[in-house]
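As noted in the main text, all predictions were made from sequence alone. Below is one such record, for UTP--glucose-1-phosphate uridylyltransferase.
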Amino acid sequence: MIKKCLFPAAGYGTRFLPATKAMPKEMLPVVNKPLIQYGVEEALDAGLNEISIVTGRGKRALEDHFDISYELENQIKGTDKEKYLVGIRRLLSECSFSYTRQTEMKGLGHAILTGRPLIGDEPFAVVLADDLCVNLEGDGVLTQMVKLYNQYRCTIIAIQEVDPQETNKYGVIAGDLIGDDLYRVRNMVEKPAPEDAPSNLAIIGRYILTPDIFELIKQTEPGKGGEIQITDALMKQAQNGCVIAYKFKGKRFDCGGAEGYIEATNFCFENFYKTGKAY
Ligand code: UTP
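Prediction:
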């Protein structure tokens, strides 16, 4: 059973400067909740209640968010404002939170490796909180992926079809269709130009990884900008036939940039806030 979910949250968030100068990108609110809270809710709904967060300098707000604020609790106790804290209280009582710091921001692969002491030798999920995923029709995206992991027992990565002109923003896969919306991954390219892309199936910020990934990341040479990419380590797993890509059901908003963030905000306002499901 997978219980652990890792949130790499040490990145600089440069696309959202200056908002992210002194505040973590993962704390940007989408309507009334910070991005990371949506991610933790999705993890808990999937049965993952051991939350591990890779933070960095200037990210202490993340730890404070997942803690009791006694003064606030005292202030609103017994008032009609208590309803605003119902959701976050549930997370605090049902999840454990552990943290480690990435001291040098050497890429997503390196951030995941930094989380190794919190994960140990077991399969785990990874959520990039700036990809906000929702499915109004049924299971959340991580729940869908955990079910697949239980069936296939190998690394599962979430993919989505993107505009062929935008492949240079993503890791892109090539694979063989093995079931409904399921591909066994054969090849993977990090941020290919449209003419070099093997498909328009792009990797988004949800993964279930088997623990052998850590040694594979260790063997990965830094690429562009000295960053260690996760794609290279995944590629090695894929060569052994152990990576399945899943075209998930639901929507994904890239909240790392202004456009996706605004779309997510409008979506959550209409579907959660106005309908009273936002807490
Ligand atoms: P991004 O590619 O979105 O990078 O990282 P970023 O630094 O957060 O944002 P921009 O591109 O500068 O605007 C994807 C995820 O990996 C984490 C980020 O926090 C984000 O959740 N990450 C990235 C780390 O934890 N450490 C790193 O060294 C790099």
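The pocket of uridine 5'-triphosphate is lined by residues 8-15, 25, 54, 102, 105-108, 110-111, 128-130, 256 (CB under 6 Å). The first helix runs from residue 35 to 45. These features were considered when defining construct boundaries for the mutagenesis experiments described in Section 2.9.
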